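Notebook B, p. 112. Complex prediction, attempt 2.
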Amino acid sequence: MQIDETVKCFKSYLERYHAIRMAESLFHWDMQTGNPPEGGQESRAKLVSILGAESFQMTISDEMKGFLDALEPHLNTLSDETKAMHRIFSKKYNEAKNVPAEEARKYFELQAVAYEVWRKAKHNNDFASFAPYLKELVETNKRLIKYRGSDAKPYDMMLDEYEPGMTMEKLDVYFDKMRKTIVPLLKKVVASEKKIDNSFTFRTISIDKQKKIAALVMKKVGFDLNRGLIAETEHPFCLTISQNDVRISTHYYENNFLSSMFSVAHESGHGIYEQNISSEFADTVLSDGVSFGLHESQSRFFENIICRSYEFWQNSYDEFMEILGDDFKDVTPEMFYEAANVVNPSLIRIEADELTYSLHIMVRYEIEKLIFGGEVDVNDLPSIWNKKMEEYLGVTPKNDSEGVLQDVHWSSGLFGYFPSYSLGNAYAAQLLSYMQKDMDVFGNIKNGNVDAIREWLSEKLHKFGSLYEPSTILKAINGEELNADYYVEYLENKFSKVYNLK
Ligand code: ZN
């Protein structure tokens, strides 16, 4: 077959793969946002598992191997688009091709059981019941990685799944910087005399009004509702069917309107990334953000850098007041800004403020490294967790439910995932610094010109979809890869001002 013909067949094979994946996504959306009260679950579960098995098979089929082998010798002459597809699917193929079907099936079962055990263990504050499953999940993951026949360190390979190119060597430098700078900065903030009163943010606001706030935030940041929609779910998330069909969700709490407001800003950031991928990649496997870390950088950019800035509140104050009404007459833009940036070292990651968030991730990163380095007994994790929380955040869990058991990730075998959350913050600060060379970012926010910011991000990052790896995209903007200095500087500047530190 001529190479052009092979490329054409490869692309149409991947189009089929993509269509199945999007059907799975639609089921997922549907299950999260509402189903008939009775029945349907079993049928849906069956349909989803058939679709899942089908898309998985397509990644390890002989046909796939045929395409990958045929294209390999021609990579230098192929388009970036074909190269990217080859890169992504070679990786998927190599990850799974040597795993015996029986091993894969057992792992699937283990994940399902471990999730249930974890859920009960968290509820009953009973780490001991979860420990053997956690051990089994770790052992199985180590085995699964061996099938890849690579010399790379197991934990490096797990990191690479979520953030292509990321390694412990790079992350050690990154977290070392956090430990040396953010831990002492947090101590200064906690010791500062300034106390921020954010009690007004817990006043009751009707869900109706909060929906208006959500609409205002989406409009301000530029999430396109002609090509997207918003729903209510227990946990906020973003899901894409195509760049013209991007869905986000939020959860409204009557006594905490900032919670939903910032979750809408966050998910809008994810959604804006997806909506602005070049239409060249429409309905292909490249029509998706390239990595977990870069995706999170966009949600954090819109949530933290834009919507938690003083300039945002200056610009939006009147519009917020129009919705909130007379009950908020006593609240100034400064008060909104400060309340949005209260630092409160706490036990729970998902409730963490902007300053302490990455310290929660550092605790998990260090523990995952110990686990995969074989340097720790799973039974010792609760006490290790508690010690690290005390050391970095100055708080100690009273029990394991608010400590080592709090996150769902490990129960599903997701090791190496957590660092991408923190990388998102770091990339966001890095992008901000580059952007400031081209425009007055906060001036634009103050003037309500978020379009300029969004267009910059689209041009430098969004439009590429999964065409290039994260480090390639960053390097193309300013000649460097991940650099923690920008993030540290951003946090130091921002929180020194908020807390009047010398
Ligand atoms: Zn996110």
